[in-house]
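Can't paste images in this forum, so I'm doing it all in text. The chain is below; anyone willing to post the predicted structure tokens underneath?
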Amino acid sequence: RDTYPAGVLTWGGVILAAQPAGVLGVVEAGRNGARGYIRYSVLAGLLAQLFGISVMFPLLWVPAYVLGRGSGPISNSRAAAIIPIILPGTILTVAVFSLNTDSYGWTVCAGMLGGPILAMSPVLLWTDKPPAPAAVTKEIVQGSISSVQKTYTIVTILGTIAWFIAVYFVYDAYGSAGSFGAIMVKLWSEVWVDANASVAFMTIDTIVLYISVLLAIAFQSFEKVAKAIVLTPLMGPAAASLVLKELEETRYCSDVVDKSSKKEA
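Text version of the structure:
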């Protein structure tokens, strides 16, 4: 807050990049056949809180996703829990940058944001199990696709709105620099070249985390990751949520729907 707007922009960037990463993590932990690190959302969250999400997500989660991802539908309870698990981090961030730093509310929100409670929220799904492969029907598959896609849609909309707000902050603070190029130079100076250590660290966090999400997408489709990159200037990290929504349907159709249709036939 003492480095407005650079501090708001960089911390907001981490939160925006964490949204698609968070949804992806919760969804993939609940698929049949998932193995290794991606199955343990609480452990992943605690390690991310301890060592930094921009360290643990690319270092452990993405390789584990490539090597051990599962397939098939997730349970209804998991689908319903994704937004309640992901959204509090965004709400608390808004509160921390809005409330008076001397207030009790700010202390509580900052403590929750920096503590283990958010990282441990997936413990609510500790006993959750995906539908058994033998019991999977086309209706279950389509229901799971719909639920996950609705979640990605919500995250895409919220992320895009937040991106527009960030763009407004940039132009409000640096618009006097003149041209678009001059504004970008001024912004880069504030978040990196002349930034203090905390702002520069969050800049690295944002960039590394978002690239990691794009790498996870690239593992599934180079076409989709190219689309996300093209849309990023317009939507910010919400572009990743948009293409993940599209990939959800594609992966189900090729991996599960055909099998369940044959079984019903």
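Residues 260-265 have pLDDT under 50 and may be disordered. The longest helix spans residues 138-174.
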